[in-house]
Amino acid sequence: MESTGSSSILLLFLFSFFHHIPALSSPTSTTPFSKEALPTKSGYLPVNTTTGSAIFYSFYEAQKPISPLSQTPLLIWLQGGPGCSSMTGNFFELGPWRVNFHKAKSDPLDLEPNSGSWNRIFGLLFLDNPIGTGFSIASAPEEIPRDQYSVAKHLFAAITSFIESDRSFKSRPIYITGQSYAGKYVPAIGYYIIRKNADLPASDRVNLAGVAIGNGFTDPVTQVGTHAVNTHFSGLINERQKRELEKAQWKAIELTKSRNWSEATHARTGVLRLLENMTGLATLFDFTRKAPYKTKMVTEFLQNAEVKRALGANESVVFEECSDVVGDALHEDVMKSVKYMVEALVKQSRVLLYQGHLDLRDSVVSTEAWVKTMKWEGIEEFVMAERKVWKVKGELAGYVQKWGSLSNVVVLGAGHLVPADQALHSQAMIEEWVLERGLFGIN
Questions:
Q1: In CATH, 35-220+295-440 is 3.30.365.10
Q2: Is 359 a catalytic site residue?
Q3: Does 180 qualify as catalytic in the annotation?
């Protein structure tokens, strides 16, 4: 999700070893982890072996692969923020085990199986990105990325290190996925890979097959201009409030066009606060919720020393869901567009965009607005393509619009955190898209 901020001081220290932990030892009797809930492997992937900065990862092999592992797709998940941990995605959304938030408050936190996990038939790799996020290590503040090129450079180092750890990973098709501010991270690393691959021998290339973005913040100058009309026609504000919100939006847009990045980011924050005040909603991430998502329970779970030990995380790290320090580092990046990267990717790989229809922050309307401005030879055909009713096991799940290499999905009954809200439907979506089945078949 996009970070709303949590007061923190980034832990700065040198990391004494650089290679990822190859496997996890058995947990002690006091860890909330059961043996079957442990990742296949987890630990650290170096991005700078000189200073010790490293990205934390947690990998889960496919539970029931339908092809040899050397051909089984590998999904990589990136959380948003900027500065929010992918461990929230892991233990609250799409990982094989979720924090059990149905228990009484007096009961200790533990994990429960997630039948909608994205690693049912695929491998699934979570990366805490950028460095300084979650369990990842930033040895100094100046090493934290301040633009998407730096984000992608670090991710490429981590991903190639992970692939090199097991020869079977080399031939597996890779799909990079993520949500919210990862609407920038995902295109950035995808774009970096296709450019890097062009200069590498075939044996050294990353086998990128596609990218998937959920409720993405990708083309800010277009998306920030959609809040007023979207909220007005949802019945949440009136005409007068719509005009007031439009003025605030226009200010953010003008500052963006003049490349006053810092002030543009502040102005966009002002738009969101105005929207919150006007609607009185518990969260813009889902306008039907009476309370925000219970992601704080993941933070509580991951601050447990035994959990850190079981995951192979540095025990000195104080886990936070979202890092203010990382968010501040990327402050001037917020209103910069990466649409051109998506335009390059849709020509050389497959692209999936999906949105929970209850999200007011990075909404269906905002995605549709920037997509139709894409410079791509297939965009006219995509815009005119039929939006088809999508069902999962006979149940209405949403709508799919597809043309060529671009697919867009609206997921009904879901907000900003689609896999948390509609686990089985999101699982069906990602599996059908990767395998090009059903409505995602070749056209």
A1: no
A2: yes
A3: yes
